[in-house]
Design brief:
mainly alpha, 5 helices, 34% helix, 0% strand
Length: 119
C-alpha cells in the first residue's frame, strides 16, 4: 500500500489482466498476507488506498470499481480522489467487462479457502 500522496495516477480505465478482482486471474499470485490485509482494511473506518500490484503508481482499478460500487467507504480513497481532482466522469467510465469478485471476502476465499473465517 502506498500513501495517498504517492498515488497520483488515475488514468487507467480497466483492471490489469491479472488483477486479483478478476475471476480469470491466476489464483494465489499474491501472498495470503495481502488478502489478510485487505480483509482487515474492511473493518478500518478510515480504510486504505490500494495501488496496482504492478507498483506502477496507478490505483488498483479493480479495487477502485469495488469501492465505487460500495459508495466509496474508504475515507483515505476519498481524500486521494479529492486531492487528485478525480471526477465522477472518470469513475463512471471505468470498465470491468469480465467476471469478477463482488466482495473482498469472496476474492480472498477464492485464493485462500482457509480465510473463510478470518476476521
Amino acid at each position: 500500500m502506498k500513501s495517498v500522496k504517492q498515488i497520483k495516477d488515475y488514468t487507467c480505465k480497466a483492471p490489469c489482466k491479472n488483477c486479483p478482482y478478476r475471476k480469470d486471474a491466476k489464483l494465489q499470485l499474491w501472498s495470503i498476507e495481502e488478502y489478510k490485509d485487505l480483509l482487515k482494511s474492511e473493518n478500518d473506518y478510515m480504510g486504505k488506498h490500494y495501488a496496482c500490484h504492478k507498483k506502477n503508481g496507478h490505483t488498483c482499478v479493480g479495487w477502485l470499481i469495488n469501492q465505487d460500487e460500495r459508495n466509496l467507504p474508504s475515507i483515505v480513497l476519498r481524500l486521494s480522489l479529492t486531492m487528485n481532482s478525480v471526477t465522477r466522469e472518470y469513475l463512471d467510465n471505468l470498465k470491468f467487462d469480465i467476471p469478477r469478485y463482488k466482495t473482498i471476502r469472496e476474492m480472498a476465499v477464492a485464493n485462500y479457502p482457509q480465510l473463510k473465517h478470518f476476521n
